[in-house]
Amino acid sequence: VFAHVLLTRPELLKGAPPELARLWRWHSIEEIEHKAVAYDVFMHAIAGLSPLRRWAFRRRAMVMTTLLFLKTIRVTALMLLKQDGITGLDARLRLWRWLWLKPGLYRLITRDYLAFYRPGFHPWQSDDRGLIHAAEAALAAA
To answer: How far is residue 51's CA from residue 29's CA, in Å, rounded to a whole number?
Structure first.
């Protein structure tokens, strides 16, 4: 979901050094291309459970993963900001605003993120092949 938003909202990389923006776009393409691999392996591993138990297991795993991911993003972002001399409460508030308000990366992914919790969900229900092709063409032209 982060990769999808990054490729559909180019303003998120506005002001980034061109090499870094290109790297993030390339990485987003790669993430989308294999977005279902871990999901499919996970679902295969719990295939012996009833559909209701698989759904419950998948929801619990997503909640735990989300909590770990949010903490990792916060800690890593603050560490990188510190390397650039940006520290303190102001740095934390600016990071929070960027993630939740403007541009609001977390807010922008909320709908697609919540889709994961639906029974019968699969990552490729959101078909991003056209997005991948457009992003690859843009990278090749750059």
So the answer is: 31
Which H, E and C letters describe the chain, residue by residue? CHHHHHHHCHHHHCCCCHHHHHHHHHHHHHHHHCCCHHHHHHHHHCCCCCHHHHHHHHHHHHHHHHHHHHHHHHHHHHHHHHHCCCCHHHHHHHHHHHHHCCCCHHHHHHHHHHHCCCCCCCHHHCCCHHHHHHHHHHHHHC
Contact between residue 46 and residue 54 where contact means Cβ atoms under 8 Å apart: yes
**How many Cα atoms are found within 13 Å in the side-chain-facing hemisphere of 109?**
15
User: Tens-digit pLDDT profile for the chain (142 aa)?
Assistant: 999 999 999 889 888 899 999 999 999 999 999 989 989 999 999 999 999 999 999 999 999 999 999 999 999 999 999 999 999 998 889 889 999 999 999 999 999 999 999 999 999 998 999 999 999 998 898 7
The Cα–Cα gap between 7 and 30 comes to 12
